[in-house]
Every structure is written in C-alpha cells, then in structure tokens.
C-alpha cells in the first residue's frame, strides 16, 4: 500500500520535518499543496533555486512526490484567470519532470449560475488549452471529485468531451458520498477505469458546522472507508492512498503529529481486514 499525505495537513512543518515524519510513520510520498503559507510552492527557494538540494533530500529518504496539487480550475470565464492558470501549470509541469512526478491535481471549479451544459463547454475549451502545456510530457492532469464536479456523471461528461489520456480522475472518496450521497460503487462504476489517485478523509454530519459536517480522524466518522478500500483493492487499483488532512482550512482538527500517525495505522489495519475478508463481486 502506497501512503502519502498532502501538505495541507502540516502548514507549520519544515521540509525536514515533513520528510522525517513521513519516513517514521511509513509513508511513501508527500503531495504538495502549499508550503509554509505559500500555496504557489514554485515561488519558494526549495522548488526554484534549491531544486537539486530538495530532490536530493527526497532521494535520500526514498520518498516520492506523487502529485503536485495546483489551484487550477478548468471552468473559468476570465481571460486573465485562465492566463494565470496556464502559467501555473507550466511551473508545475516543469517540477513534475524534475521530480518524476506523474500528476498535477486540478479542480473543475464553481460554475455559479451557469447552465451545466454551457459550463461543460467552457471547461472543455479551457482544458484543451491547459493540455497544450503538458503535451509531450510524462504528466497527467487529475480532475478531483470536488466542488461543482463532485458527481461522477458530471466528471464523466467532461472527460468524454475532452477525450484525452492526459486528463484522468482523482477520487476524493469523501466528497461524493458526504456532499451528494453518491455511493462508492456508483462512483467506481462510472469512473473506475479513469481513477489514478485517491484522497482520503473521514467526517460525520454536524448541522451547525459551516460545511454541514465535521472532519475527524479516520474511523471516527461514518464514511464507509472499509467498503471504499475493499472496492479499490478488488478492482486492482495500485495508486496512492493520500491523506488530505485539511488543517489549513480547519484549524480545529487534530495536529499533524496525531493525524498522520493515526492514518498510517488505520490504513494498515484496513489492509489487513480486507486481505482476510471475502472478495466483493460487482
């Protein structure tokens, strides 16, 4: 099992701390979504002028950077914003080649009052431009099941329109189930052959919370994590299981020292349970 965590969960950790804790807790990768308050990590010395030093640290620790999580939205009607996203993708594509990272995470984005059909057409045109940035490079954009593109049907519609092997899916196993009630089997049946990467989190309903739910340590909520893991393993998924601990957005949740260690332990237990149980049939 390949475990990773995103840097959203450890906003105050230095690179040295991230690497040492990843090794200590049994992770194989670190997914970068910001570093020490800067979301655009390519602006920092560690990912610009000190690239060789950073790569050396990862190699020495035998860790990977499986994904760079960008802020790019496929749907935007702003020419200026689209230009910014193109520039951001160029930076991340360069980093991917340097660190042999296969994926860049992108969002579908909020469509507001736009008709779904119109929004899909706009997102398709934008994505065609974005894909030109990575054309000929060993890099794939991953559309996350998130925001107005959480539904497997909405994601599939966009994938079908774009029709490119360089646009695949990041299944955030939490969002479809929690926010729109989509069962994991439904998600897999529609998107399974396009899922290359996964994000993991747990929660329980909490009406008074601004999101309507409260994030919690894995196993303490009611997301069907066992079913999701079993489904992925039974269907031959070999990608990363990445903890997206949203400490940056939700400072009230546990500190990374607790959450990262607990996640690694929980997932190893989950693996043992699934290995000893019967195979699911679909």
UniProtKB/TrEMBL annotation:
Molecular function (GO) terms for this protein are: isomerase activity
The UniProt keyword set, sorted, is: Isomerase
Identify one Pfam family in the record: AP_endonuc_2
Its domain of life?
A: Bacteria
Is Isomerase tagged as a keyword? yes
Which positions make up the signal peptide? none
Q: What are the Xylose isomerase-like TIM barrel domain coordinates in residue numbering? A: 20-261
What protein is this chain from?
A: Sugar phosphate isomerase/epimerase
Q: Which organism is it from?
A: Fictibacillus solisalsi
């Amino acid at each position: 099992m390949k475990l990773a965590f995103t840097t959203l969960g450890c906003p105050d950790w230095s690179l040295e701390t991230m690497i040492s804790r990843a090794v200590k807790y049994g992770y194989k990768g670190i997914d970068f979504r910001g570093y020490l308050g800067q979301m655009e990590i390519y602006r920092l010395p560690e990912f610009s002028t000190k690239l060789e030093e950073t790569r050396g640290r990862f190699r020495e620790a035998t860790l990977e950077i499986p994904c760079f999580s960008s802020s790019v939205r496929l749907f935007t009607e702003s020419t200026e914003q689209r230009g910014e996203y193109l520039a951001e993708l160029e930076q991340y594509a360069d980093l991917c080649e340097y660190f042999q990272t296969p994926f860049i995470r992108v969002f579908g984005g909020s469509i507001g009052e736009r008709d779904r059909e119109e929004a899909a057409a706009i997102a398709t045109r934008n994505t065609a431009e974005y894909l030109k940035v990575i054309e000929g490079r060993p890099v794939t954009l991953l559309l996350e099941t998130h925001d107005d593109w959480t539904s497997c049907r909405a994601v599939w519609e966009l994938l079908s329109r774009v029709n490119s092997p360089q646009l695949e899916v990041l299944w955030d196993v939490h969002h479809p189930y929690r926010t729109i009630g989509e069962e994991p089997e439904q998600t897999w049946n529609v998107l399974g052959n396009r899922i290359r990467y996964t994000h993991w989190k747990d929660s329980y309903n909490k009406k008074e919370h601004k999101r309507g739910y409260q994030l919690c340590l894995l196993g303490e909520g009611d997301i069907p994590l066992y079913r999701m893991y079993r489904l992925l393993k039974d269907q031959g998924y070999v990608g990363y299981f990445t903890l997206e601990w949203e400490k940056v957005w939700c400072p009230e949740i546990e500190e990374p020292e607790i959450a990262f260690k607990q996640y690694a332990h929980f997932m190893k237990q989950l693996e043992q349970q699934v290995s000893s149980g019967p195979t699911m049939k679909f």
